[in-house]
Amino acid sequence: MLFSRGFSRIARNLRGSSNGCRWFLYSRDQNHHFLLLHNYQSPRGSTDTVLRSLIFSKALPALHSTRRQVHHQSSSIVEDQLDPFSLVADELSHIAHRLQAMVAAEVPKLASVAEYFFKMGVEGKRFRPTILLLMSTAVNVPIPGSPPTNELGGTLTTKLRSRQQSIAEITEMIHVASLLHDDVLDDADTRRGIGSLNSIMGNKLAVLAGDLLLSRACVALASLKNTEVVSLIAKVVEHLVTGETMQMTSTSDQRCSMEYYMEKTYYKTASLISSSCKAIALLAGQTAEVSTLAFEYGKNLGLAYQLIDDVLDFTGTSASLGKGSLSDISQGIVTAPFLFAMEEFPQLRAVVDEGFDNSANVDLALEYLEKSRGIQRTKELAMKHANLAAAAIDSLPESNDEEVRKSRRALVDLTRIVFTRTK
Amino acid sequence: MLFSRGFSRIARNLRGSSNGCRWFLYSRDQNHHFLLLHNYQSPRGSTDTVLRSLIFSKALPALHSTRRQVHHQSSSIVEDQLDPFSLVADELSHIAHRLQAMVAAEVPKLASVAEYFFKMGVEGKRFRPTILLLMSTAVNVPIPGSPPTNELGGTLTTKLRSRQQSIAEITEMIHVASLLHDDVLDDADTRRGIGSLNSIMGNKLAVLAGDLLLSRACVALASLKNTEVVSLIAKVVEHLVTGETMQMTSTSDQRCSMEYYMEKTYYKTASLISSSCKAIALLAGQTAEVSTLAFEYGKNLGLAYQLIDDVLDFTGTSASLGKGSLSDISQGIVTAPFLFAMEEFPQLRAVVDEGFDNSANVDLALEYLEKSRGIQRTKELAMKHANLAAAAIDSLPESNDEEVRKSRRALVDLTRIVFTRTK
Is residue A181 classed as helix, strand or coil in its secondary structure? Predict the structure, then answer.
């Protein structure tokens, strides 16, 4: 819970300056303890967002690389661009099959759960395992004080890779379990165009399927025999619950608070990928510094992903408002674009408080949003987090290994893909 | 899953003999591999149920003690009778407070979950932790090849006890999580006279509260740093899901099969207590033999408990049929009394298949049950399992330690309390 306090100053500081802003993201937690400090220029300036500095308070190197920090500014990419997904395509397919087998084997009635995994054409479904497999290679650098990898032999490397693949599988199982339980909770009939398990098999089996996945994830975690990793990942389930509870039970003040929103977003979206990125590094026996950078990458990418999701809910694939599914406001969920708009037009709050049960209120709220810079500022915040994610990768210990460099480049490319995606 | 096959011959053999029966409970599993073989005399005989022999096929001593194997036959108890609950009352209260703190601390909205724990006057709620604390003392015997306990010092003993208390807490968390999710599933408004969390806080929070408990249980498990124990207990969650799925999705043939019923009962009721009993022994560093005896105690006590539950659903506190809540048949769940009755009156099957939506069918089914020996035979089966549980305790390595003996006596007494309870 302490971690979430890290977001506590965002809203205040964003409000405190309209042309430029200094952020303090202070976080204390059992596993990470750092201070993020950076400035950004006015969104009206020629360079929309520039990361100035990122200072960790405890044993972390300053993220001083600027090579890719402004990569979103440039339309021409210096490095060869690779499709991040194709780099790990074979492994992704292997993991998808293992997941299907794990779920389908013993409980045939729950076999349709497997359809949730790696559904073709649903980009989001491949994001997490792709990130985790790329991260596995990206942190494959010598550990100070350990013998070189080649002395350990290929078997150990293969074994490590297999354990890291397990993290990708466990992450997908937890993710799908949370989708299943969220479907029950929200009574949603469809999710991103895929027929909801709820409507196919009923609430009862959806809850049980989620429980089954959670227990399989727990058994798979236990078999990794790394207590730190088990605790780290098990805690994610608690975060998912906390985030969902925060969303369900918020007061009007909480719903209209950027701090509360970012805390909830971390729990609901960023905790899983950040913790599993860290787990990848921990399994590799990496240093605390490398593990924290892996965590930072996942956290910031997760936050950027969700912020763009919030924008797409309003705009869909076009740039026009109202073209998205508007599923958030239809469920009374207030996201970043509205929160920013409310800073410009405080009268929007009354509309939000009235709710969106009637379409007149929806139209009115969209009018305010259109007049405001809410969408633009949300994109800027997403870009900031995407840049922080890229900066974390740039701060990893240098490596001359071509595979390592390729994977790191792909991880950085993913920060742009998150930003430019249309679904 | 393989374990459940152990029950596969019950129905056939029970049908095969009306005056006496030989059981073969054969079980193969990653953790246990044994053969139970025993005879019982006709229920019409002067001694209702006598355990003849129990032979383990793999490195397990035969359970040859008969001292308490017939304790249900005798109205006079040889040993001093102690209240099993009072033996561990202080620790129970300590655990209850810790559980409340664990649940209430970080998510106030879910605080009412805590009311489920150790609800005063609900005997069942104290059963599991009482068993586990008593088992902790009962298996506190020297381990061959290890230094005597006093050489290890009191701190280690205290630490072990604290870890065993954790198992009791984890077990309660998993149990309550399954109640919460079952409440969602069955849409039950009340459960044993306690207001259902469902009706108090809604389905959404009940699912989340269950997930929270599962994740807390997983974190607590991980902190025990014993991979075998983590896998063992995590597997229980899968068993609970499997049992519930079996109950929900059964065909008519499955619903009317004693084998299927016993398999489901193991998963839904006996797996949790048997696995946690075994975990207690594993944490103590006990031998495979002792761990398996602990498992056998829990398994047989759990099965006996559920069989008596099934009887009480028809009779309540009186001996008369129809005085119970009849909640099982009202949900279309066919339990042991009906399954035995169906062997005598095959025409009952048609009534069962028609369902119990109208009260005429309920009355007709109860008439058949009253004419049959279904209730009596269910009690006999429960007694058999209670005796097997007591026999497992009697087969533990001998100890002259008064505390150990007292706890074992209390565990055996619990097998009688399970049998004579009225709620």
Answer: helix
Contact A225 B227 (CB under 8 A): yes
Chains A, B: CB pairs < 8 Å:
124
Q: Do A244 and B1 touch (CB under 8 A)?
A: no
Q: Which domains does chain A have, with CATH numbers?
A: 37-420 (1.10.600.10)
Phi then psi for residue B55, to 5 deg, are -115, 120
Interchain pair A227, B231: CB under 8 A = no
pLDDT at A16: 31
Largest CA distance in chain B: 69
- Give the least confident one: A311-315, A344-348, B271-275, B324-328: B324-328
pLDDT digits (tens, 9 = 90+) for A99-153: 777 766 556 666 555 555 545 334 455 889 999 999 999 999 888 777 655 545 5
A153 to chain B, closest Cα gap in Å: 26
Q: How close A227 comes to chain B (CA, Å)?
A: 6
Instruction: Please state, in angstroms and rounded to a whole number, the distance separating the CA atoms of residues B139 and B292.
Output: 11
Instruction: Report the Cα B146 to chain-centroid distance in Å.
Output: 32
Please tell me which of the candidates B225, B231, B241 has its beta carbon nearest to residue A227. B225
DSSP state of A273: H
Handedness of CA A9, A11, A15, A20 (dihedral sign): positive
CB B212 within 8 A of CB B103: yes
Residue in chain B lying closest to A110 (CA) = B245
Contacts of A215 in chain B (CB under 8 A): 234-238, 241
Q: Which residues contact A401 (CB under 8 A, 6 or more apart)?
A: A140, A141
CB contact under 8 A, B109 and A245: yes
A289, B24, B69, B104, B124 from B49: Cα distances, Å: 66, 16, 10, 47, 26
The residue among A5, A203, A211, A229 with the most chain B CBs within 10 A of its CB, best to mutate, is: A211
DSSP H helices, B249-335, are 252-255, 258-265, 271-283, 288-315, 327-330
> Greatest CA separation found in chain A?
69
Q: Give CA–CA dist A366/A355, Å, rounded.
A: 13
Is B212 close to A238, i.e. CB distance below 8 A? yes
Q: What are the CB-based long-range contacts (under 8 Å, 24+) for B109-116?
A: B109/A245, B109/A249, B109/B201, B109/B205, B110/A245, B110/B205, B110/B208, B110/B209, B110/B212, B112/B197, B112/B200, B112/B201, B113/B176, B113/B180, B113/B197, B113/B209, B113/B212, B113/B213, B115/B194, B116/B176, B116/B179, B116/B180, B116/B194, B116/B197
Q: Which is more confident, A9 or B196?
A: B196
pTM more than 0.80: no
Q: Give the number of residues written for chain A.
A: 423
CA of A388 vs chain B CAs: smallest distance (Å): 29
Interface predicted TM-score (ipTM): 0.73
Rounded to the nearest angstrom, the minimum Cα separation between B288 and chain A is 20
Contacts of A212 in chain B (CB under 8 A): 238, 241-242
Give, for B26, the enclosing helix (H) or strand (E).
strand B21-28
**3-state secondary structure (DSSP) of residue A377:** helix
Q: Quote the minimal CA–CA distance from A217 to chain B in Å.
A: 9
Give the start-end residues of each E strand in A30-99: 33-40
**In angstroms, what CA-CA distances link B250 with B244, B260, B332, B337, B394?**
10, 9, 11, 18, 38
Of A110, A214, A237, which is closest to B245 when you measure between CB atoms? A110
Nearest to A109 among B221, B227, B249 (CB): B249
Instruction: Measure the CA–CA gap between B401 and B319, rounded to whole angstroms.
Output: 41
**What tens digit of pLDDT does each residue of B8-24 get?**
222 223 223 333 222 22
